[in-house]
Design goal:
Structural class: alpha+beta
Oligomer: single chain
Distance between the termini: 116 Å
Strand content: 25-35%
Low-confidence stretches: 187-200, 623-627, 670-678, 733-755, 1440-1463
Number of strands: 63
Mean pLDDT: 80
Shape: extended
């Protein structure tokens, strides 16, 4: 929280009432326009503390109307009500008037361009002028533009230009080869010769509005165009660069938004009436991000977010010091601090801090937090934030002057059981905890710093230090001296102040006793801190040093240390503190980038070493370790992503250190107010020693009702309370909370008007000293040692430190420490010394829980540490135990919420327990709700409301629950109210109860109707019993049947000889009743067919068959036989099969024989009667391998017989299957060959892997069209190869060669096939003997002939003569034709002679061929072209008739030859 110092401006005597205020945007100068009824008006300039700038005073006989500062230069434009406009320069006071003939009416528009090179002026007569101002701030002659709109002008804004291109980015793009980027740097190519713009350009176009609602656009070329029009006078305008939208607010508070096109075209996109009073007194403020804020003298401020299209209102809070009915008149928003200030009608300045928070989904939301107000006099009419974010100018309507509020951090200090806290700019609250006294001290000047000791209080106002000494309930001055020192420290009777390069040690009267000099390299001291008898000093060059103050003169410890050498990226020191022994120095720093460092550094003066704890990761540096892994994990979870903001050492214990930390994204890190109300502040305590480094001792959240930590002095933390300012006094926010002294703090409503001594500092005991606050020093030291050794895990030393302590309170406190350290072994010892058997038992029972946190939570519960127990249960995820904890603590709402969100398995149980609790508390209405949620209301609610029958009946009728209706019906029946009971039984659809009541009332007919209509079995049974009792047998049987009580119905039918109904009832009933009924029929000797059927249905098949055979019921036998299977009696099966054979039912007989495992008889019956063996029958005849009825040989014999039978019937596939199962693959292959299924033959041969089967498959495949199917040819070759039938494979290759020659004349392929055949025969030579040799000789001769013919054809082009000679020699071979067709040789010669024109020789070769083979078809060997050329040359026509016949005959010979080959 901050304190606002009020500086009233030093107005001159001639000044009147202030009406205008305006801060410069960058210089701390305030312009104030005043009006005096007698002398006119004036304009004055003031500095930040209200000092008047005497040279800058302008006075006229009329009033000023507008003030507008130049955006960068200290140049003020002042408009007067007569139209005069001047430019006032600060601090020289030089003023330059604009030409007098420009404006003749009151100035209403003054607006500078963004860089200040243009000034727009406008008046009430409608005259607008634009002026040029040079870089020195001098006006350049006449106006650039002057335009008369003939209507009052109201508002003007300059249109911002788009940001200029990023030069660095363009340079990188140009280097990478981007031509467009290169063109931007080339003035010849860029924009037709325009110079490339380096940096941002000033926008000279603007919008100006008139009183009739018109808005005009004026561009750089001074062209004015009517842009748009609204309904009333424009009060404010705002332009969105991102969306190119112009927003307009009128005096009637109508908000309109217009989309502005590049050519000046506008389109209205929204119009809304703002819900406010409106009028001349409405203060309207636009922020840069499009937030519209209005204050119109109401009790709230209205905000509209134009960008997000959202609106809301802010109001005052009476509990913070505002009064009921207080009105908000004016507003001002500080962009840098994100603080909204509003002036009220009762002289208060309300402050809202804007905070942006993110939810779990990542969505951001803006929140406004109202802070404590500052107070001035009168009704505030204007206020404005200054160029420095801590300055706020306030103008009151009923006060003649202006007040400048200067924001300062509230100063405070603690030392030697004395605490001082600033309450107001001139007021201190002092607390002496030794004497338990609190006093309030009023200083004569503003308080900017305070330091205290037990005997002295020093106050600094910025220029002087005043020293006071306690005197009863007040302070008396002991000395005062001038000092400009911003840092101040006290020790004993010495005052420590700073000057450049030295620290001064003064007496209370200001006399310098000693100088502590620092060199220029070490820098100027800026930070002073005293702890115990040691002084820590930090300089502006990040050097630190510690001085020993125990002697008469201060002595340095060690050397001055430059922390820049140890800490990377160190910018400046934020805080320097030393411990009570002067051995350790703790430092908080700011990084080079200006952000606070997340680490707290510890410099060991004796060892000259630096260590740190990083709050961003929640861990110390790698060289230091925590006591155990669990502590390290806890640190990382609780302390990660945080930053330290303040630090303190214990006043007396040198090992104990504490600091306050906040999240890294906290607003505190961006704020200059170190005492701002902090959210989520964690107070972290460490033990710091040379031997063990940094050890986390405790971490706990700062109490919400307290402002900040002030000091650490074992056994207490000292906190500053939050303040609420009320007119006439102060109150504390922790209403009704009991402080450490046991006195309740007054609430605001009960606070006195002038509280004499508000208690601003409260003490909170350390975790280890709760309950031991008043212990003696020996116990205190023992507890500290115990806590230290417990932290490092040295249990021997820990118990040694407390072995002499006998107090149960101390042991209980140590047990509480075990909750934080999670040392259950130590806790057991503590509980034993406490004698707390219940807690020890609970802790032993908790050992069954797998989570350590759950066990520790049980200990915390037993010790009354309920918040810790709750946190532990949540951290380990044991929400079931947390649910029980809440129930035991009576926190039922939390228990229900936990069950609903995390522990749904116990949800109904929780509802039930809560309902029982509510019932015990007498809240039956709410108990009903939770009994219903737990689904136990059907029993619990009637029990609970049993004493209140009326309420119970109303509840039952409201719930409309069948179970409740039934219960209520039973209750009414017990009260003999039968009619009402029947009524509720009908609602419950409880038909049994209805029938029972009707029968009781003697209305059996109605009961019968209900039973018949509903079909309810219980109701029908009850009616049947009633009819049986009345000997109405038929009705009784009927209702027994509807009740499915068939045994009772059967019993009545047998007793009353109702045989006709008996059969149907027996069939509906169970097998026992069927057997009983069948025996009944058999004994009577009638209806034997029914007996057989019932025996059969009951599963007694043998009995049914015997009875059927005995009575010769062949139809029944047919039905019974259908249910016979292999589990039936074999003798019975054989008997049935004989019966079916006798009656020519062979198929059924076969099935029964198979079931009887008489396979041979069944198979013989199939053969004898020519029964078709289906696959199902064959499978039933097949005996499994593990069968004991047949041996393996007999089983295979049976399978072969089945296969033989299938072969006879032509079922080859089934025969193959059975032969295969019998292991006879040869017969299986033969059966498969007969089927002609090529695919299965190939597959079977592949899986059989037998030589004979391979050969059989290959022989079969040769009978197919292997010439046109490559797969068949491939399989033939593969099977012959696998079957090692090389001679057969050779024969196949010869057949292939003949096909190639006869069909395709392809002697090359034929030669290859014969070569393969020769190879096969060569391999088979050892097996076949002489026969193979003769075949090889024949093949070799054929290969030679074919090879000669192939060579002749190949050498035709190169050596045709040799080719002819070879062919002639081939014709001389006697056995040429089997190898090479003679026609092919003659055809080659004829083609050769025709090609060379030797037709005579060609004709002779044809004649020679025809003489050798008279019936040959010449056209098969000689091309048609050659034949026609030969006929034309010889003049002879060949006769084709005989030739064709011969050709046909030759074809037939070839076909027959092929068939022979195939077979």
């Amino acid at each position: 929280m901050a304190v606002y110092f009020d500086h009233r401006v030093e107005a001159p005597d001639s000044g009147g009432a202030a009406v205008l205020i305006s801060w410069h945007s960058s210089v701390c100068v305030l312009a104030v326009g005043s009006v005096n009824a007698s002398t006119g008006g004036c304009v004055d300039l003031y500095l930040q503390q209200g000092e008047h700038v005497e040279l800058c005073h302008v006075e006229r006989g009329f009033s000023p109307s507008l003030l507008q500062w130049h955006p960068t230069k200290p140049l003020l434009a002042v408009g007067w009500e007569t139209g005069e406009t001047i430019l006032l320069s600060h601090p020289s006071g030089e003023h330059t008037p604009l030409p007098n003939n420009t404006h003749t009416a009151c100035i209403t528009v003054l607006e500078w361009s963004s860089n200040g090179s243009r000034l727009v002026t406008g008046d009430q007569a409608g005259v607008m002028a634009v002026w040029r101002v040079d870089a020195r701030g001098k006006l350049q002659g006449s106006p650039l533009i002057k335009h008369d709109y003939s209507k009052p002008l109201t508002c003007c804004i300059f249109r911002p230009t788009a940001p200029a291109e990023d030069v660095a980015m363009l340079a990188r793009a140009a280097v990478s080869g981007d031509e467009s980027a290169l063109d931007m740097f080339n003035w010849k190519k860029s924009n037709k010769g325009a110079v490339f713009a380096m940096g941002s350009q000033e926008g000279l176009a603007f919008y100006i509005s008139a009183a009739d609602g018109s808005v005009y656009s004026v561009d750089e070329q001074a062209r004015s165009v009517a842009l748009l029009s609204v309904e009333s006078a424009v009060q404010k305008m705002w332009y969105s660069k991102r969306r190119a939208v112009l927003a307009v607010v009128t005096e009637s508070l109508q908000l309109s938004q217009f989309s502005v096109g590049p050519e000046g075209f506008t389109q209205e996109i929204s119009k809304v009436k703002l819900s406010s009073r409106g009028g001349q007194h409405t203060d309207v403020v636009w922020t840069e991000n499009g937030l519209l804020i209005t204050a119109s003298g109401e009790q709230h401020i209205r905000l509209w977010d134009v960008e997000l299209d959202d609106h809301y209102a802010l109001s005052l809070d009476e509990s913070l010091g505002f009064e009921k009915g207080e009105l908000l008149n004016c507003v001002s928003f500080c962009i840098s601090k994100q603080v909204l200030a509003a002036g009220t009608s009762m002289g208060r300045v309300a402050l809202w801090h804007m905070v942006t928070v993110s939810d779990q989904k990542g969505d951001t939301k803006t929140q406004w937090k109202l802070q404590t107000p500052a107070e001035v006099e009168g009704n505030i009419s204007q206020l404005q934030w200054g160029s420095s974010s801590h300055l706020l100018a306030v103008c009151s309507s009923n006060s003649s002057s202006v007040v400048i509020l200067s924001e300062h951090v509230m100063c405070s200090h603690y030392s030697q059981q004395m605490a001082a806290v600033q309450l107001t700019p001139t007021q201190l609250g002092l607390a002496n905890f030794n004497t338990n006294t609190h006093i309030t001290f009023h200083a004569d000047t503003h308080i900017r710093a305070v330091q205290v000791t037990k005997d002295m209080v020093a106050v600094w106002n910025g220029k002087y230090i005043t020293v006071y000494e306690p005197s009863g309930q007040t302070l008396r001055s002991a000395g005062s001296f001038q000092c400009e020192s911003a840092a101040l420290a006290l020790h004993d009777e010495n005052i420590y102040t700073i000057e450049p390069n030295r620290v001064q040690i003064r007496t209370p009267q200001g006399t310098v006793k000693q100088l502590l000099v620092f060199s220029e390299v070490e820098g100027n001291p800026t930070l002073l801190s005293v702890c115990g008898s040691y002084l820590a000093v930090g300089t502006d060059t990040s050097h630190v040093r510690v001085f020993n103050l125990t002697r008469r003169e201060a002595k340095p410890l060690g050397v001055t240390k430059n922390l820049c050498e140890l800490i990377p990226d160190l910018g400046a020191l934020r805080s320097v503190k030393c411990n009570a022994s002067g051995s350790q120095l703790s430092v908080l720093v700011t990084q080079v980038n200006g952000r606070p460092d997340n680490k707290v550094y510890f410099y060991d003066i004796e060892l000259d070493t630096l260590s740190y704890f990083d709050f961003f990761t929640g861990r110390p540096e790698s060289s230091l370790a925590l006591s155990d892994d669990s502590q390290r994990t806890r640190c990382e979870g609780e302390l990660a992503a945080r930053c330290p903001v303040s630090q303190f050492w214990d006043e007396n214990e040198p090992r104990l250190f504490v600091c306050e930390t906040v999240p890294v994204n906290s607003d505190l890190l961006r704020s200059s107010q170190s005492q701002t109300e902090k959210e989520d502040v964690m107070v972290v305590t460490f033990f710091v020693t040379q031997e063990h480094g940094l050890l986390l001792q405790d971490s706990q959240p700062k109490p919400a009702t307290l402002l900040s930590l002030l000091a650490l002095d074992t056994p207490y933390y000292y906190y500053i309370c939050k303040l609420l300012f009320r007119r006439g006094g102060l109150v504390l926010p922790d209403l009704g909370e009991v402080g450490d002294q046991g006195q309740a703090v007054s609430s605001p409503a009960e606070a006195p008007l002038v509280p004499s001594a508000p208690q601003m500092v409260v003490r909170r005991a350390l975790r280890d000293f709760v309950g031991l606050e008043s212990c003696e020093k020996q116990t205190r030291d023992a507890m500290l040692n115990f806590s230290f050794y417990l932290t490092i895990g040295d249990m021997d030393e820990a118990f040694k430190a407390i072995k002499l302590i006998k107090s149960e309170a101390v042991w209980e406190n140590m047990a509480r420490m075990c909750v934080k350290s999670r040392r259950l072994d130590v806790a057991r010892v503590c509980l034993g010394n406490m004698g707390n058997a219940r807690a020890a038992r609970a802790l032993r029972d908790a050992e069954k829980e797998p989570e350590l946190e759950a066990q520790v939570a049980v200990l915390a519960t037993q010790l009354g540490m309920l918040e810790d127990a709750e946190h532990l249960y949540k951290s380990c995820g044991r929400f079931d135990l947390l649910n029980k904890f809440y129930q035991a603590a009576g926190q039922w709402q939390q228990a229900v919420e936990t069950a609903e969100t995390h522990d749904r398995i116990h949800l109904r149980t929780t509802y039930y327990s809560y309902a029982k609790h509510l019932e015990a508390m007498g809240d039956k209405t709410l108990a009903l709700v939770y009994f219903e949620k737990s689904d136990t209301h059907r029993f619990e609610v009637p029990r609970m409301l049993m004493e209140d029958n009326v309420s119970l009946e109303i509840y039952i009728n409201k719930m409309k629950d069948k179970d409740l209706y039934k219960w209520w019906g039973h209750y009414l029946e017990s009260q003999s109210d039968m009619e009402a009971a029947l009524h509720y039984y009908a609602f419950a659809q409880d038909y049994l109860s209805q029938v029972r009541v009707h029968c009781y009332l003697g209305n059996i007919q109605k009961a019968s109707e209900i039973a018949n209509e509903t079909g309810n079995r219980a109701a029908s049974y009850h009616v049947a019993r009633q009819y049986e009792g009345q000997d109405e047998i038929s009705q009784s049987v009927h209702f027994y049947t509807r009740a499915q009580a068939y045994n009772n119905a059967i019993r009545l039918c047998k007793e009353n000889n109702l045989d006709e109904q008996l059969m149907n009832l027996a069939l509906l009933s169970n097998p026992e009743d069927m057997m009983d009924t069948a025996m009944y029929y058999e004994e009577k000797g009638t209806h034997m067919d029914r007996a057989v059927m019932l025996y059969h249905k009951a599963g007694h098949v043998s009995k049914a068959l015997e009875l059927a055979f005995a009575t010769e019921q062949f139809g029944a036998l047919q039905l019974i036989a259908e249910d016979l299977n292999e589990t039936s009696d074999p003798a019975l099966l054989a008997r049935c099969s004989d019966f079916f054979i006798k009656h020519a039912q062979y198929q059924k007989a076969v099935e029964l024989l198979v079931a009887a495992k008489k396979y041979h008889e069944a198979l013989q019956l199939c053969l004898d009667q020519s029964l078709n063996i289906t696959e199902d029958l064959a499978e039933s005849l097949t005996v499994s391998k593990d069968s004991t009825h047949l041996s393996e040989a007999e089983r295979k014999e049976l399978l072969e017989k089945i296969a033989d039978c299938c072969m006879r019937q032509g079922n080859y596939h089934l025969a193959t299957k059975k032969y295969t199962q019998a292991g006879n693959k040869i017969k299986a292959m033969r059966a498969l060959l007969k089927s002609g299924d090529t695919e299965k033959i190939v597959f079977f041969a592949g899986v059989s892997r037998q030589k004979e089967i391979y050969i059989m498959a290959a022989n079969y495949l040769q009978s197919l069209d292997w010439r046109n199917d490559p797969d068949i040819m491939k399989n033939i070759i593969g099977f012959y190869t696998k079957g090692r039938a090389l001679d057969l494979l050779a024969g196949f290759y010869e057949a292939c060669a003949e096909v190639e020659i006869d069909d395709y004349q392809n002697y090359e392929k034929a030669y290859g096939a014969l070569t393969e055949a020769c190879k096969c025969l060569t391999k088979a030579k050892s097996r076949s003997g002489d026969e193979a040799d003769s075949r090889i000789l024949i093949l070799t001769h054929k290969l030679g002939l074919i090879k000669r013919f192939i060579q002749a054809r190949r050498m035709h082009e190169e050596d045709p003569v040799e080719a002819v000679r070879v062919c002639e020699s081939l014709l001389e071979e006697k056995d040429l034709d089997p190898a090479v067709r003679i026609g092919d040789v003659y055809g080659f010669l004829v083609e050769y002679y025709c090609h060379h024109g030797n037709f005579q020789q060609a004709w002779s070769k044809i004649e020679e061929l025809r003489s050798t083979r008279p019936n040959i078809n010449v056209s098969l060997y000689v091309s048609q072209t050659s034949l026609e050329a030969l006929q034309n040359a010889a003049g002879i026509r060949l006769v084709y008739g005989n030739t064709n016949d011969a050709h046909a005959a030759d074809d037939e010979e070839e076909v027959e030859e092929d068939e022979n080959i195939n077979h």
